[in-house]
Amino acid sequence: MSEVEGTDIRIRKRGLRQAMTAAREALTGTERLRLSGRICGHAADWLAAAGSGSFMAYVPFRSEVDTAPLLEWAWMRGIRVILPKSEPSDRSMRFFLVRGWGELAPGAYGIREPDPSKAAEWPKEEAPGAILLPGLAFDRYGGRLGYGGGYYDRYLEGLCRRVPAGARRPPVIGIGYRLQLADRLPLETHDARLDGWIDEEGFHGAK
Ligand SMILES: Nc1nc2c(c(=O)[nH]1)N(C=O)[C@@H](CNc1ccc(C(=O)N[C@@H](CCC(=O)O)C(=O)O)cc1)CN2
Ligand SMILES: Nc1ncnc2c1ncn2[C@@H]1O[C@H](COP(=O)(O)OP(=O)(O)OP(=O)(O)O)[C@@H](O)[C@H]1O
């Protein structure tokens, strides 16, 4: 990719981030909860069908899909919930096995994160059953746009390097409202591709 193309993509990404943030913020609190309930229901069905005994997810902030019903469903079922703790100095994430709301504490960016004195760290070399990730926008081809930290791109790149040759990487699935579905996102080579996404209409595999 040339320098000019790279700069052009970053400018388009910035514009899309602003537009998608505005669209998501425009949902009323009631509508957000209603849609989040449906999205979590589809995610639970998908995890149950996939037989995932563990999965990575996120604790919502800003106007993201509220994952609370999904996390509570998993805790009731004995499915292991793995949540990220951001390290802004090098934009990396550590993951922890979290058994309930009491194991979270306020962290970077105002996001509630696992409290290392309460939750156990999830071993880096152990792949989860599935990875559910937040985002500002998704497309039908596995594209995803985040807040621009590159946190998940970096994590997924590391995971791919650690997965033994011949083994499959766990499914990587975006979680979002239908209104976050874009035509085709401008992507750079480092952007991780998703296997699918879940919105209030259900699960969709990437084309
Ligand atoms: N709920 C949730 N947890 C998550 C993520 C997420 O997207 N959602 N992350 C997924 O990555 C990581 C945190 N990543 C973040 C990256 C950037 C910003 C942020 O506030 N960015 C500024 C712009 C900063 C800049 O331009 O330098 C902003 O959006 O205003 C917040 C979180 C880990 N945990
Ligand atoms: N694997 C990687 N190694 C090193 N730097 C990376 C990697 N992936 C992304 N980056 C850097 O991170 C920055 C942000 O990337 P990008 O705009 O794609 O973030 P994002 O996917 O929107 O954010 P997030 O994953 O935090 O939600 C870029 O400057 C990029 O160069």
From TrEMBL:
GO terms for biological process: folic acid-containing compound biosynthetic process; tetrahydrofolate interconversion. Its EC number is 6.3.3.2. Its cofactor is Mg(2+). Pfam families: 5-FTHF_cyc-lig (PF01812). One of its GO terms (molecular function) is metal ion binding. It catalyses: (6S)-5-formyl-5,6,7,8-tetrahydrofolate + ATP = (6R)-5,10-methenyltetrahydrofolate + ADP + phosphate. ATP binds at K13, R14, G15, L16, R17, R144, L145, G146, Y147, G148, G149, G150, Y151, Y152. Substrate binds at V59, E64. Keywords: ATP-binding, Magnesium, Metal-binding, Nucleotide-binding. NCBIfam families: MTHFS_bact. PANTHER family: 5-FORMYLTETRAHYDROFOLATE CYCLO-LIGASE, ATPASE INHIBITOR/5-FORMYLTETRAHYDROFOLATE CYCLO-LIGASE. Belongs to the 5-formyltetrahydrofolate cyclo-ligase family. This is 5-formyltetrahydrofolate cyclo-ligase. It comes from Paenibacillus darwinianus.
